[in-house]
Amino acid sequence: MVEVVLKANLETIEAQISELQSKKAQLESLLEDIYFQQRLAQKAVIAKNITVIGGAGKLGSLFVRVLTQLGHNVSVFETQDWPNAEALLTNQDCVIVSVPINLTLSLIEKVAQIISPDTVLADLTSIKVKPLQAMLSAHAGPVIGLHPMFGPDVADIEDQVIAYSEGRNTRACQWLLDDLSILNPTLYPVSAENHDKAMAFIQVMRHFSTFVYGVHLKDEDPCLRELIAMSSPIYRLELAMIGRLFAQDSQLYADIIFSNPDNFELLKRFQQRYQSGIELLESGNKELFKQSFADVNLWFGEFAEHFLEESRCLLEAAHQYRVK
Amino acid sequence: MVEVVLKANLETIEAQISELQSKKAQLESLLEDIYFQQRLAQKAVIAKNITVIGGAGKLGSLFVRVLTQLGHNVSVFETQDWPNAEALLTNQDCVIVSVPINLTLSLIEKVAQIISPDTVLADLTSIKVKPLQAMLSAHAGPVIGLHPMFGPDVADIEDQVIAYSEGRNTRACQWLLDDLSILNPTLYPVSAENHDKAMAFIQVMRHFSTFVYGVHLKDEDPCLRELIAMSSPIYRLELAMIGRLFAQDSQLYADIIFSNPDNFELLKRFQQRYQSGIELLESGNKELFKQSFADVNLWFGEFAEHFLEESRCLLEAAHQYRVK
C-alpha cells in the first residue's frame, strides 16, 4: 500500500519536473536570444557579402547559418556553380573555403585567381600550415585560417572552440572574428605550426591508434558481447570510443590520417615507446615502471587530479547512457 | 526590463526543480528500500558467519557493508589478526579473500590451512585462473571466484557487474550468489580462462596502452594547456582518460599489468599491428585503409552504430563536466 502511494507521488513529481524543465529551457532560450541581440546591438555588425565554398556541406552550412544569423549576406557556392564563378566570387568581402581536405589546396588556387584583391580569404580546414601557405601564395589580400574544433552536429557555436591562425593583414580580417565572437565561441589564436603539431596528437595519433585498436580487436576476435558484459564503466567507454569511429566515414579519417607524412614520425616514436614498454614488462622491473608512472604524473601536474575528478562525474553519467 | 523578469522567473523555476529533485531522490530511496526489504523477505536470508580478509580495504569494506546489510554476521580480518587466526577463521561459513593481487596466492595457501573443510572459500581478485587454482589445490571444500567489475567508490552494487567463476561444489556456494542478487547486481558467470582472456583486453591492454601514451606525451612534451585549449570534446575525454591513470596508485597498475606474462603476447601483437598500420600509411594506400576500416565496421556489427549514439549523448554530458 505504502509502495503504491509512493509510486504515484513519484510519478507526479517526475511529471512536474519535466514540465518545469521544458519551461526552463524556453526561458533560457529567450534569455540567450536577448543576450545575443544585446551583443549584436553593441557590436553593430556591418552586413558583408560572404560566400562559403562548400556551404551546402555539413560544416559549411553551419557557418552559413551562423553568419546569416549575424546579419551578413551569405551565399553558398557548390561544384555546379563553377561556370558562374566570375560573377559569384568577385566583389565578395569574404570567401570561406569549406571543402574536404584533399580538395582544399587545389581549390584555393582556383578561387584565388577569381576573387578581388581585397577579399578576405579564409578556410575551415583541420590542418593549417599548408592551406595558409596556399592562400598566402595564391592571394595577395587579407588571409586568415580557421579551424572549428567541433563536429558539424553542434546546435550552435556558443562555448565551442575555434582556433585561428593569422595569415596576412589580420586587421582587415578582424571584423570576421569580432562578429563570430557575438555568438560566444572561444576564439583561440595559434600559429599554424603549433596548431598542426597539436593536431598531430589530437587528431592523427588519436584516430590512428583507434583504427589500429579496431583492427587488433577484429583480428584477435574476442566475443564482443562477453567483453561488453564484463566491461567496467571505463572500458565500456573505451570500447564505445573505438566502435564509434567505425560507424563513420572512412574517407574523412583516411584524409585526416594520411594528410601529413610529417606526422608519421610521431606515430613511429609512439610505436618505439610501446616496444620499450613491453621490454620493461618482460624485465619484470616493477620499480622502473612505478618510476616512469611517477614521472608522467609529474608531467600532468595538477591536471592528473583534475582529470580524475572530471572522469569520475563523467563515468557516473556514462553508466546512464549505456545501450543495454 | 524583460530580461530582469525572465531571470527572476528562471531562478524561481530552478529553485522549484531543485526542491522537487531532492523530494524525488528521497522517494526513490524510500522505494528502493521497500523493494530491497521485499526481496529480502522473499529470499529469507539465513544469517551466516562470514570473514572478509582485507575487509578494512576499499573493496573489502564495500563487501563487509553489503553482506552486513543482507543480515550476515561479518567480521574483518586484517594483518594484525594473524596471531588469532585459528580462533577467527575456523567455523566460518564463508571466508572471502580481498587483498592486493601480489599477496593473494600466498595468502590463500595460509588461509586454507586454517579454515574448516566445509567453509566456502571465495576471492575478489581481478584475475581468476591462478587464484581459483590456488583455492582448489589448497582447500578441499566449496570454492568460488568473484570479480566485482567496478571500483570501490560506487555507492552500492545495484546494476553493477560481478563476474563469477565456479570452482568446486557450486551448490554449497549458491546462497552467497542468491543473497548478493537481492541487491540487484548483474551476476555474470564465466569460466576463469575466458574471464582472464577478456581481462587481458579490459585491463591489461587498456592500462598498458594508457601508460605508454602518458610516457609518449611526457617525452614529446607538447604544451598541455594548449592541447587542452584546442581539444575537441572527444580528445579532451581521451586526455582525461590518460591523465586520470597517473593520479592513481602505481602499485595497483603495476600489479595488474605485470600479473600475467601470457598477456605480453597480446601486447606484442598489438605492437605489430601498429607497425603494419604505419607501413600502410607510408605506402599511401588509402583504399586499403578504407577496406580495413570497413572490415572492422563489419566486426563491430550493430554495436558500431550503438556506440556512436551512446558516445554522442556522453560527449554532450562531458562538455558540462569540463574542468575550466
UniProtKB/TrEMBL annotation, chains A, B:
Q: Which GO terms describe its molecular function?
A: NAD+ binding; prephenate dehydrogenase (NAD+) activity; prephenate dehydrogenase (NADP+) activity
**Domain Prephenate/arogenate dehydrogenase: where?**
48-311
Known SUPFAM superfamilies for this protein? 6-phosphogluconate dehydrogenase C-terminal domain-like, NAD(P)-binding Rossmann-fold domains
| GO biological process: one example | tyrosine biosynthetic process
Chain segments annotated as coiled-coil in the UniProt record: 3-33
Q: Which UniProt keywords apply?
A: Coiled coil, Oxidoreductase
- NCBIfam families referenced in this protein's UniProt entry, alphabetically: PRK11199.1
Quote the protein name from its UniProt record. Prephenate/arogenate dehydrogenase domain-containing protein
| Species assigned in the record | Catenovulum maritimum
